[in-house]
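Q: Make up one entry.
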Amino acid sequence: MQSQLALNLAGCAAFLGLAALAVTRGKKSPLAFPTALLCVDLFAYTSLEVLGNLTAEPRWEWIESAAAAFAGPLLFHLSLTFVGARRAQRAALGLSYLYFGGVALACVAPLSGAASPEFPGSDRWALLMLGGIAPTFLLAGTLLVRHYRQSGSAEERARTLLFIATLAIGVGGPATDLAAIAGMRSVPPLAAIGLLISAVLLTALALRIKMLQGTLPLLLTTAVLIGLVGVAAQLLVFRWAGTQTALLVLGTVTITLVLLGAARLVWTAWAEHRERTAQLTTLGRLGAQMAHDIRNPLAAIHGAAQYLDEERRRGGRLEDHAEMIALVLEQTVRLEQVVRDYRRLGRAEPELTEVDAGALAREVVERASISAGDAVAVRAEVPEALTLPLDRELIQTVLENLVRNAVEALGSEAGEVVVSLTATPQRATFTVRDDGPGMDPRTREQAEDAFFTTKARGSGLGLAFVRRVVEAHGGEMRLESALGRGTTVTLKLPR
């Protein structure tokens, strides 16, 4: 009994500490939020088990059974996020939440007197739990194994193995308790130790995938201490309230609300900071690109003005320099066009004209080849003439940014960037492909979110802008990438 209590208390501290770290230090990791939710649920489950053992009050077992039910879909959610299949498997994820949510609702129904108190923690409850766990985590395991086999990076395969171990122990431990409750008395209950080990593995995984960016050992120690303080406060409430249910509920709710309030404040501040940073980053990229486009005509105007001023000092006549005057006027018109273009860039509203798309792609590739350097080959695979209804400036900006992203992804390594264009009677397809390092599935899925960019700095406008422009043309964008296998962005446009 004492060892079981010690394991549960250690699990409480570990899950509370990891939840706090995920919320406060998760930064841009897509795994941070589902990890925090799972850890909060497991903290509630283990603390309710401690409370039930200390008070022998059946109501705590009912709520504990409900918390145990929610752990299933939350862990499934985390698994899908890890392999980058959350969107693709949203139907299965929704069904999982619906099924286990129904089990959880049946567990807490006795609190209102609307159902029999015999269901929570019974053999029927255990069988329903096992019946939901089996198909859910068979699918999760299949996706993880497939992800392991398809990973081109040794580091990503190591992460996947660690996650599989976390999943196996985190599900296998509680499954032994469920089997024992369901009538398999020979199965030893290992839920407490399994959850504690899975907490340790989950922490190791979070550090390995750099989910807890900037986390030092001192911070980990602090998080564990915070968890221990939370558990100690809960134990003091148990001892102070004794068997008085109302006081126990009041104390538990107060501690929970304080923790959730602190987490909410941190989460809200972080979300606002992230949104501001993303918007400023996008604005900065747009400004950098605009500065690049303005610099050339300004330089031409400045050079022409200096030349004309020098000629004036020598006593020359303006009539003798009509070409220079024409150059100034031409570059002024160009500047006005740049300003008009960037006003439309913010709205991504296309002005369609018939454009030779093949010539446009070759023009983009020719300019990119000059700046890419000797290590990176940029080439075009496009037809000689293919006319499409496009906004030339918007599509040119999109292609330039995709090619720039691909070149920067290759860095100093030798590689190739290919811009291709194919067409059917219904649509035309631009493809920008590189053989660079690629992206892991979490980054690939996150790259489709608003304001996300694939590089830390540069003048690119980001994939969110690319998607806006393509959709404004009535088309669609698709991103494909894998570690060690490069990245391909496909733009499908109507003809």
